Amino acid sequence: MEKINCLDLSGQHKQIKQEIFEAFEKVYEKTAFSGGPFVEEFEKAFAKYVGSNHAVGVSNGTIALHLAMLALNIGVGDEVIIPANTFIATAWGVSHAGATPVFVDCDADTWEIDVTKIEAAITPKTKAVIGVHLYGQPFDVEAVKAICDKHKLYLVEDAAQAQGARYKGITVGVFGEMACYSFYPGKNLGACGEAGGLTTNNESYLKHLQSLRNHGSVVRYYHDEIGYNYRMGGLEGASLSVKLKYLEGWNNRRRAIATRYQSEINNPKVKMQAKPTWSDGIYHLFVVTTDNKDAFVKHLADNNINAAYHYPVPCHLQKAYAHLNYKTGDFPNSEYLAAHCVSLPMYAELTDEQVNHVINIVNQF
Ligand SMILES: Cc1ncc(COP(=O)(O)O)c(C=O)c1O
Description:
Layout: H1 10-30, H2 37-50, E1 54-58, H3 61-71, E2 79-83, H4 89-96, E3 100-104, H5 118-121, E4 126-132, H6 141-151, E5 154-158, E6 166-167, E7 170-171, E8 178-182, E9 196-200, H7 203-212, H8 234-264, E10 271-272, E11 279-280, E12 286-289, H9 293-302, H10 332-340, E13 341-344, H11 352-364
Helix pairs in contact: 1-8, 2-8, 3-4, 3-7
The protein binds pyridoxal-5'-phosphate.
């Protein structure tokens, strides 16, 4: 058996190479490289797919989070609650706006933000909660929204890992003021290049986001506020429009692989993310935990399976946030997850034979 990597993008790109190249040719002929019609076409299609009124394409997911904070007028002196066990960029969005991320532990089983811990983290400075649909599985949106409504806080969804995931049958991205996406190449919907985006039902946020990403300008060379060059590229937009047509099929293949992992991996040493009744996730990552992580990863590697770690250090213990004075022991579930997590291979092009091999090797550990 050849090496099976945690993620391999080559199969997907072989499958759609012709279509992508044709799309690139159209961008090239129109020289529409920055923003423009190919980005607008993707924005329309993506908003429709999510079921949101509007979508805004930007340069990457980190920037989407930054702009969400700016559009909500969140800045210096404000606090934003986020889970401690997310990719660090959720926190960057808050920090780039000048606000302070306030971390909350995750649930021991679902690994999503622990709803019972949010209220204790609220202070008079709190402006918003960013819920993260971690590994492509929705967090408990209704429960978090109820807390936000009670305390008059904004809810923002970090859907960077969750394009097409469903909460109680509804595609995520419509529950908060805004939702933020990464279209990094490795995401379930990834551009040929760096890209990100937001969805919102609110037209005034839409207009503000469009201006902020374009130097604070609506009319060319007239700048209404200090803005940014955060536009999406035309080639990225065109590649995303091609790939969006395949997303549902790719997500369903991931769901089928996940179902096999969930039902056929029966090694008691290996624990999986609990799947709540509300969740129809898209398995961006398939993370498990095991007590002896190093031995497990070596056993996988000895059998031609390359695992990965998402994420080995929780946000509150990152050096970048040392000034916030968190310490080991503050968020035990996030810390346990960081110390014991291993990501198994997960992408739509995995063959049934490769899935069999992963299941057998995990069960042999
Ligand atoms: C949860 C989460 N938030 C934000 C981001 C940031 O996205 P990007 O890498 O496109 O800046 C990512 C992607 O890596 C992510 O996984």
